[in-house]
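Replying to the earlier thread about multi-chain prediction with a worked example.

Input:
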Amino acid sequence: MKVDNKVDEICELPTPKRDTELRQVWRHLRRNRLAMIGLGVLLVFLLCAIFAPLLTGYDPIKIDLGNAFKLPSTENLLGTDWQGRDVFTRILYGSRISLAIGLISVTIGMLIGVPIGALSGYYGGRFDLFIQRIIDILIAFPGILLAIVVVTVLGVGVENVMIAVGIASVPIYTRLVRGSVLAVKEQGYIAAAKALGIGDFRIIMRHIMPNCLGPIIVQSTFQIATAILWAAGLGFLGLGAQPPDPEWGAMLSKGREYIRTAHHLTTYPGLAILFMVLGFNLIGDGLRDALDPRSRKHK
Amino acid sequence: MNNPEPMLEVEDLKKYFPIRTGVFSRVVGHVKAVDGISMRINPGETYGLVGESGCGKSTAGLTILNMLNPSGGSVLYKGKDIYSMGKEEMRNLRKEMQIIFQDPYSSLNPRMSVGEAIGEALEVHGIATGKKRREKVEYILKVCGLDTYHYRRYPHEFSGGQRQRVVIARALVLEPQFIVADEPISALDVSIQSQIINLLEELQDQFGLTFLFISHDLSVVKHMANRVGVMYLGRIVEDAPKKEFYASPLHPYSQALLSAVPSMLPAQQKERIILTGDVPSPSNPPPGCTFHTRCPWAVAICSNEVPHLKKVGPDHFVSCHLVEEVI
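Result:
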């Protein structure tokens, strides 16, 4: 029963262009209209943040009391606030702060949460039990409350908000990564790697983590949205950015005092928060579908 | 036929998995996946371990490679007890003992190119890096019936048979001497199975490999093995040279298994021995001979006393109380 060993090669289809997973994901994402809208919204915010000085002639901080409480007009697109500052300008500059808080705090949360979750899931046992009980306690608090506690300890300010929101998102990452690691750990290639004498560190870094990336990426887009919301919340409570920084939450909080006479002071920063969070959520939804091979096949 | 130095000597190997329940993970019992098996495998030989699914074949394979901690017994590889080895010594031994898994789909990392997957071990063990590593991987790819241009391909670009070749290439790249083949063909199409079998045989000739071939396919084992061990519920019930086993199986379970193998020649068609009932749970095996609940010849002693492997021929062992009468 000798058969030519290369027979099965005939079955192989020619692959003219290398279809990487990244390309497949992008192709799927591009067809998702909502995700594209989200991406568009975020791009607008990103461009606003980068080119803020070119898009407006006003200064976001300089006080001009003579022009206070102007209603939206051609001169001041979204009106001026109680200190005569152009609201549109402040929102543009505020997108810098919000984006920075979102990205940096999520990075902090990821840098701490992902390794803890990976080790906890990979080694299991008592170590896992110990870590997970701590995470249970942290998850029992609402994230914003945890962030408030951390800010209270560290003191107010944008940097501390980033740290606080980052720490508050650690438990979410730990749980997520632990779950993914538990699933990947049982795959045959992990056993094969162990049989080949490959060390634990290398197995985690090269075999397990690359296969857990999908959920982490998806969670991160949602987490950025949450972080921006938490940061705005902290700003609203006066624990975040301090005046005169044009932070959206702080703008809302101060504008609230004049909501009967000058609603534009709260409406527009509120809309800015809404759209940025919506943008991240839409793209996150799209990514979740696009990164899941099963849902990819249906379309 | 006691050869001077067996490659592998398994002595009364046990692997129990604890069953835990409740908040405090109290151990309430054990699944006796492997319950005291012994075997000797000589260099260059193929030992075929057969049995139904769930009888502990795969657990035995993993425990023999020290990938699961044994609950008892010993495994001597070239005369050295592998369970008493230190971490570093064991890591070095990994180069000599390898495993081929059943499912070629889950045993390749989808995010690693074939070249990386095969070459990784070379790097980790400091055998070859850079260009030398590549040459070595390309050589082993060719040996396993693949092409050098497959080096940069990813697993999803391959068919099942090709994936299994990659898995075999990965196991071989460290030039091992002993390989546990854990049902290496049962996940493949029948048309591909024979190719993989041929490949394994060629490799055995070329590299002088010793196999522990785990399978539930008696015809494949007949083709591959020199020696056959039949497992039932964590124990080896019969252990014999291939020819003797296929000509005159002595344990009732072996006989039932062999009677189920279809034959091409109507004249050879034996009467089917049909076992009733299911395999009992390994967490609560029946007392006495574990097979007595399904054995057509069971008598009183079978449910009371545990039979031990008895020597019935020069190199033929059976664990059955009634073996003399059955003969």
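Chain A is about 70% helix and 0% strand.

Feel free to reuse this layout for your own posts.
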